[in-house]
Amino acid sequence: MEMRLFDLAELVGGELVGDPDLLIRDVTALDADEDRAAGCIAFVAAAIPTMLAIMTHVDALIVEKLPRGEVDAKNWIVVKDPYLAYAKIAQVFHPLPVATEPRRDPTARVDPAAKIEEPVDIGAYVVVEASARIGSGSVLMQGVHIGAASRLGRNVVLHPHVTVYSGTRIGDRVRVHAGAVLGSDGFGNAREGDRFVRIPQIGGLVIGDDCEIGANTTIDGGTLAPTRIGKGVRIDNLVMIAHNCVVGDHTALAAQVGLAGSTKVGARCMLGGQVGVAGHLRIADDVIVGAQAGVIGNLNEKGVYWGTPARPKKEVLRGQAEVARIDELRRRVAALEARFADKDESL
Prior knowledge:
alpha/beta, 12-stranded mixed sheet, 10-stranded parallel sheet, 6 helices, 18% helix, 29% strand
């Protein structure tokens, strides 16, 4: 696939400087070697001096502003946010797989009571149980298991060995990476003396449109009401979301985040890697929680939080500054003690 540079600039609302008819075949890294760079476009991050980018082998560059000097040496698309423009252009050359004609591998097992809205691409050893519904354009790669009465929207992509438990509902244009488990039983148990009594988890799981879920992530179904993942949510690899959680629209959870049961995370939040959130808590909209923080109380106001327990970033930085002064304070106290000890002896 090739596109004119003019059309790519139009796509991202950028200013084109250079040859509008230059054909671009792919995106690539700024430091790609000459063989891989021909016919490609790259973006220049804010931290990289734009003049250095002129030396790249790439034919076209996405930049925030033009360099001084030899702009004729390259072709440019000038935009406010080069990274965002790069993302949109990269999607052109690397779109999500979509089924354009029906295909069913002979090793797949699809229950006659399942409803398939063709075209759907069903790979090797896929299992689709009774009363499941799968929307058109969806792609189920090898080893995917779809439980009974599940609902998949249109253009859903499930990578190898994704497991969708019975009753799970997935919206349109959702992408789930290999090994993820959706709708598994939550960790619900009651005590009876010295033993546990299992609480059936019957609430299910609802995932909104346009989500992406990383490899080996697990999202439990709810106890009575469903666990809910909002629209446009981004969930990284190895994330654990427990039963009855709610994740708001367009929130991002980085790798190894853990949400305990009945946690509610607002919209447009970002939780860094290995953040842990205790159960039955509320996190407001537009909250950022730094990596490895521990959230043990509600975060009721938008802002940036660090540490364990998670506190506003400014408070944490002040505390770290005070800790850095401990050795100095210890020396000053020792010096004062020595001075007063000398005075006592002279008396």
